[in-house]
Amino acid sequence: MSTAPLLSAIVASGCAASAASWREGAVGPQIDVFYATDRRMHSPPAEPCSAGPIRSPQVQFGGERGGHEAALWAAQLKNDVHFEGVIVVYSWPSRGSRWSYLADLKNADWTTPHLVDFLDTLASGANGAPIHLFAHSMGGRPMLSALHGLAVQRREGPPPRFGQIIFAAPDVDAEVFRQLMPPVLALAERVTLYTASDLALRISGWLLAHPRAGDSGSGLVLVNGMDTVDVTAVDDSRMRHDYFLENERVLADIFQLLTYAAPPQRRFRLFGVQLHGFLVWQFRS
């Protein structure tokens, strides 16, 4: 009997992704999204006693350590790429505001050991079903650190294995990304970096004095064994940061990656360009 694939999505933060097509009044389909979180739970207000059926209080979580915009974009991603498996969101304490950017950086580091445990538990309970991992923006920071920890830590059995690992516009120091990625490659069937000339990440790099891995305008991040896909030529959005939700060509490419595990040379509309001894994949305009 075949088993359904899984997709674990790490929530974006700092510059929160917007699920554009569902926020313009369109009624989207009902999609089940599971989640794990280390956010602090907010106690719902007590309701006065009244006759009638008992309603379960709505569970809410705040931006403190301890908004589930992530659930919305995860549901849209599942719908847009026709993903047939279960989708699980790991939501960490991001405040989702540009004014809380530095606090989000600290919280991204704080959540990393919790994310290590979550990924290890998820992999051990999958019973052979492939697990695909997707991280966007600052969510790439704890994802990369957690995967690196799983790859290098001493353990009795083999490290967990994943299917596709996708980093979209990661807000991660480019040099740190290059340093931590090589051991991570052994955990996945394929690792893909989507990058663009990203204004939001350009600002982040200016604030932190180091270029970000998801900003191709500061120099492409190239790692032997990892696929780098530059979407700049086909993304005409203002910030070039949320293309994984808004750009049909990128969504089609993610579909081919998740559904068929297709390498870039077999994916529609991609072509390779030699750069410093590496192949960089770009979209045909």
Structure description:
There is one protein chain. With 285 residues, the protein is of the alpha/beta class. It has a single domain (6-41, 60-283), classed as Alpha/Beta hydrolase fold, catalytic domain (Rossmann fold). The protein is built from seven helices and eleven strands. The chain has helices spanning 69-80, 101-124, 140-152, 174-184, 199-208, 243-246, 248-260; strands spanning 6-10, 34-37, 39-42, 60-65, 86-91, 131-136, 162-168, 188-195, 227-230, 270-275, 278-283. The strands form two sheets. The chain has a nine-stranded mixed beta sheet with strand order 2-5-1-6-7-8-9-11-10, sandwiched between helices. A two-stranded antiparallel ribbon has the order 3-4. Helix 2 packs across helix 3 (140-152) and helix 3 runs parallel beside helix 4 (174-184). It is globular and about 40 Å long. The relative contact order is 0.14.
